[in-house]
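ARCHIVE CARD
CATEGORY: sequence design from structure
SOURCE FIELD: tokenized fold
FIELD CONTENT:
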């Protein structure tokens, strides 16, 4: 009996290989476990066997594996290990003992080992955040700072302590801080501005782990067979994953061209390889430069434990009357859903695929194209998109403004492209990138003539390959980006040579889609604003928030909204600039003051507007979001009317209920017409 138990322990300690487990039912992540210590095959006592089995079980539990379910079949001999064959030949009573031991170990793992690890992590978190609780009295100390939303200096120090401790607490709490930074409707603006600066200090995981994940995703093929070049040093390390740059081998691209059609280029570039399509005989350009994103080991286990701790703490804090309106347990659940989406890299791949479909015919907006055929929960492989970080252009714009010099020739164009792309996400597609900070936006340059349909047809007739010199343009900008004066001169040359800017949006792991209720609320809110009915706007926000019974002074809130909307109306007819960012900041402060609990998706849209207008105004101080919305609203109103808004009109009442975007469009068009006429009259008066 002891011999069979020892044999069972040895069998469990062997490395798990995908090929070996091909005919077995598995719920696990696709990578191999390093081989642990294997004891000699000799009879041992039951206690020793159980102890070793427990050790083996601990090794498995400590690695990022899901529960493993084994099913034994009669005809697995060609793929089974010697221990599996021995187990199959064993008597039913012995197999029953082994299965009982397996269930016992699973029970110990679930109800004993994992709770212990959660408790250990909980104690660690308590020690980290105890100083924050102890230092609460300092929020009442110090003078108020008008430049920091009138917060006391002691309060600002306390916010800094929160940011520091969250950074030390690890990836999950860093993500929590970044998420909290977007909820200006719940937390003070000074705290949110600090939390938005949180960055991951996670050390990169070992390349040996990355190699196993990639090879398993490609069916066990060695890394050198797939890639001709693979940079072992990651180009980016985040809280839950890290990114590498690699180049697919031409022969691999040739043999897997049907799987790589998603990343073919319209024109030839240095990062593409020319391959003949077997069916049509046409020469296609397959993009071979890729980015490989690999999830950190143990990321799921760590996040799962941290979420349990957060849920417990949130439940306790929700007892406090002044905190109850925030609904912390619900917010933790929402945050948990967001984290689970990011822990499955297939979600990001699907989002990239959808964005590429939506912007397929738009040359000014680009999303990296994913290779869904080889994307798994632990690995995402996508086209490597070369570009200049938009922060370089923001720095150049700030330098120009500080010296009262003219900005770079493309700054206004880049700002317009960004706003147009976002407005299409919001109004047309209801599929919004939820992480639009400058780190996720890049700029590249292209020649529109290379992508013109007529040019492409003519090149095929003349058998002359069109080339995109965008990479050369990037090299020219890279060489001078540290000298703003030289950079402006180089950008002017690119414009003269016929280049245009294109925005690249990265990291689409999080997207916002407004459901029918939230979308209706959003449109109703726009309708009330378009009609300059501020009081109705305030009432709608209170009535349709998540906890209307907990709102403080709803009547005063509605009157404040009326005051804000009247100010917008006055600025509009005086042809002044309406700064949407300032407006939304004021509204978020009111929401927090009166405990108007908004839906998270709704707030995500607001935050995206704040970020985009902030970036746009740095590039173009005269940027007007409402003016930028005119062409998008015009197109949407025509499309929406053609689809059914006008078709549903049967009476005067139906006209009143027509799409709210028509009213918003009419209001903005009228505003622009007034502005244009005023400028013309001023010009005529001068002459």
């Amino acid at each position: 009996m002891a011999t069979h138990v020892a044999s069972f322990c040895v069998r469990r300690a062997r490395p798990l290989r995908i090929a070996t487990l091909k005919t077995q039912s598995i719920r696990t992540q696709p990578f191999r476990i390093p081989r642990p210590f294997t004891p000699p095959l000799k009879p041992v006592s039951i206690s020793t066997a159980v102890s070793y089995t427990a050790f083996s079980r601990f090794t498995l539990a400590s690695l990022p594996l899901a529960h493993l379910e084994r099913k034994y079949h009669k005809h697995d001999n060609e793929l089974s290990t010697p221990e599996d064959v021995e187990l199959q030949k064993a008597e039913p009573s012995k197999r029953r003992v082994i299965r009982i031991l397996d269930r016992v170990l699973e029970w110990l793992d679930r109800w004993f080992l994992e709770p212990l690890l959660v408790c250990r992590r909980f104690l660690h978190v308590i020690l980290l955040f105890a100083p924050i609780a102890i230092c609460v009295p300092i929020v009442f100390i110090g003078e108020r700072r008008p430049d920091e939303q009138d917060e006391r200096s002691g309060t600002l120090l306390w916010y800094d302590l929160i940011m520091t401790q969250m950074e030390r607490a690890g990836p999950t709490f860093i993500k929590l801080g970044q998420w909290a930074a977007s909820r200006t409707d719940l937390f003070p603006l000074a705290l949110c501005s600090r939390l938005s600066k949180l960055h991951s200090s996670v050390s990169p995981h070992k390349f040996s782990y990355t190699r196993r994940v990639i090879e398993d995703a490609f069916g066990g093929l060695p890394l050198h067979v797939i890639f001709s070049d693979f940079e072992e040093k990651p180009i980016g390390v985040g809280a839950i994953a890290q990114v590498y740059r690699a180049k697919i081998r031409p022969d691999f691209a040739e043999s897997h061209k049907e799987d790589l059609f998603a990343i073919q280029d319209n024109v030839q570039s240095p990062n593409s390889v020319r391959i003949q399509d077997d069916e049509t005989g046409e020469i296609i350009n397959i993009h071979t430069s890729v980015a490989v994103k690999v999830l950190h080991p143990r990321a799921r286990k760590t996040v799962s434990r941290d979420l349990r701790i957060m849920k417990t703490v949130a439940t306790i804090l929700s007892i406090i009357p002044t905190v109850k309106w925030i609904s912390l347990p619900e917010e933790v659940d929402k945050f948990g859903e967001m984290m689970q989406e990011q822990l499955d890299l297939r979600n990001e791949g699907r989002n990239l695929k959808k964005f590429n479909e939506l912007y397929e015919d738009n040359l000014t907006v680009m999303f990296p194209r994913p290779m869904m055929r080889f994307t798994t929960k632990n690995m995402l492989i996508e086209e490597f998109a070369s570009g200049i970080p938009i922060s370089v252009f923001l720095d150049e714009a700030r330098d120009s403004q500080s010296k009262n010099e003219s900005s770079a020739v493309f700054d206004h164009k880049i700002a317009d492209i960004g706003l147009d792309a976002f407005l299409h996400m919001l109004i047309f597609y209801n599929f919004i990138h939820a992480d639009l900070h400058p780190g996720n936006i890049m700029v590249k340059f292209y020649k529109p003539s290379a992508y013109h349909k007529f040019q492409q047809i003519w090149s095929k007739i003349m058998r002359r390959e069109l080339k995109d010199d965008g990479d050369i343009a990037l090299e020219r900008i890279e060489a001078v980006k540290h000298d703003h004066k030289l950079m402006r001169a180089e950008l002017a040359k690119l414009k003269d040579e016929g280049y245009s800017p294109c925005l690249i949006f990265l990291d689409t792991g999080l997207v916002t889609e407004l459901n029918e209720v939230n979308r209706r609320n959003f449109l109703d809110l726009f309708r009330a604003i378009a009609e300059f009915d501020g009081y109705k706007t305030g009432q709608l926000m209170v009535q349709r928030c998540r906890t209307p019974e907990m709102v403080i002074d709803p009547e005063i809130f509605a009157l404040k909204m009326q005051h804000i909307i009247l100010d917008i109306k006055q600025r509009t007819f005086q042809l002044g600039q309406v700064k949407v960012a300032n407006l939304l900041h004021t509204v978020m402060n009111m929401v927090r003051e009166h405990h108007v609990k908004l839906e998270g998706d709704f707030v995500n849209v607001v935050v995206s507007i704040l970020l985009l207008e902030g970036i746009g105004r740095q590039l173009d101080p005269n940027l007007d979001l409402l003016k930028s919305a005119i062409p998008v609203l015009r197109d949407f109103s025509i499309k929406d009317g053609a689809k059914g808004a006008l078709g549903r009109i049967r009476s005067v009442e139906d006209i009143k209920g027509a799409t709210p975007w028509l009213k918003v469009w009419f209001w903005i068009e009228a505003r622009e017409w007034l502005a244009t006429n005023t400028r013309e009259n001023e010009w005529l008066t001068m002459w």
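CARD ANNOTATION: The first helix runs from residue 2 to 13. Residues 1-81, 644-659, 679-687 have pLDDT under 50 and may be disordered.
SHELF: design records, drawer C
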